[in-house]
């Protein structure tokens, strides 16, 4: 009996020692004109980009990205200063762009605190992956969190939801501050 207990214990220790360690997740926040926070693995890299809107033209944006375990985690923040009254239309336009040419698995309304948005999950064309997104508009900014499983990745990874559902509109003590400009 004792041998079987020790054998089970040794087997468990061995299993944990050869299993890859889970990626460390960090909490990030921004308060430069827009206060929000989210959780993501690895170190995020920021880059300036342009966001093309059919209804509002081209706007500056900042994209934060990280890739971990064949999943790309991306946060896009678009400044729509002065377009706050267009919030529902801008969310719909961003949602329609995300859904284009995909197999839609989920398209539903979402809320974070008092902010309205959309949560979407799609299978990408040609079985090239799966993507989940949350799109919100807050304080004249469109915010899109998107997790995309790349080819060869685990289509059922809970990390997609963990990332997309972590959006909050406040900073978190001990979080890493992101800058919305380079």
Molecular structure report:
The chain has 182 residues and is an alpha+beta fold. The protein has a single domain (25-172), classed as Protein Transport Mog1p, Chain A (3-Layer(aba) Sandwich). It is built from three helices and ten strands. The strands form two sheets. Strands 3-4-5-9-8-7-6 form a seven-stranded antiparallel sheet. It has a three-stranded mixed sheet with strand order 2-1-10. Mean pLDDT is 83; it is low at 1-21.
The shape is globular
Strand content: 35-45%
**Which structural class do you get from the secondary structure elements?**
alpha+beta
CATH H-level superfamily:
Mog1/PsbP, alpha/beta/alpha sandwich
Count of separate DSSP helical elements:
3
- Euclidean distance between termini CA atoms: 63 Å
How many structural domains can be distinguished in the coordinates?
A: 1
CATH architecture type: 3-Layer(aba) Sandwich
* Main β-sheet, spatial strand arrangement: 3-4-5-9-8-7-6
Uncertain runs are 1-21
The percent range for helix content is: 10-25%
List the helices and strands and how they pair.
Elements lengths: L1 H17 L6 E6 L5 E6 L3 E9 L3 E12 L2 E9 L7 H13 L3 E10 L2 E9 L6 E9 L2 E9 L9 H6 L11 E2 L5
Parallel strand pairs: 1-10
Antiparallel strand pairs: 1-2, 3-4, 4-5, 5-9, 6-7, 7-8, 8-9
């Amino acid at each position: 009996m004792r041998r079987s207990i020790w054998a089970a214990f040794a087997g468990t220790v061995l299993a944990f020692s050869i299993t890859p360690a889970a990626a460390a997740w960090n909490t990030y926040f921004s308060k430069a004109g827009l206060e929000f926070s989210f959780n993501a693995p690895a170190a995020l890299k920021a880059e300036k980009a342009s966001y093309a809107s059919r209804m509002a033209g081209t706007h500056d944006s900042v994209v934060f990205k990280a890739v971990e375990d064949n999943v790309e985690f991306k946060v896009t923040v678009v400044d729509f200063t002065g377009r706050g009254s267009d919030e529902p239309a801008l969310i719909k336009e961003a949602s329609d762009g995300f859904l284009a040419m995909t197999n839609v698995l989920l398209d539903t309304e979402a809320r974070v605190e008092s902010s309205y948005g959309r949560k979407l999950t799609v299978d990408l064309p040609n079985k090239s992956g799966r993507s989940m997104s949350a799109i919100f508009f807050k304080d004249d900014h469109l915010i899109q969190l998107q997790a995309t499983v790349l080819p060869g990745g685990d289509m059922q990874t809970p990390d997609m939801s963990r990332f997309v559902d972590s959006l909050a509109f406040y900073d978190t003590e001990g979080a890493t501050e992101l800058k919305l400009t380079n």
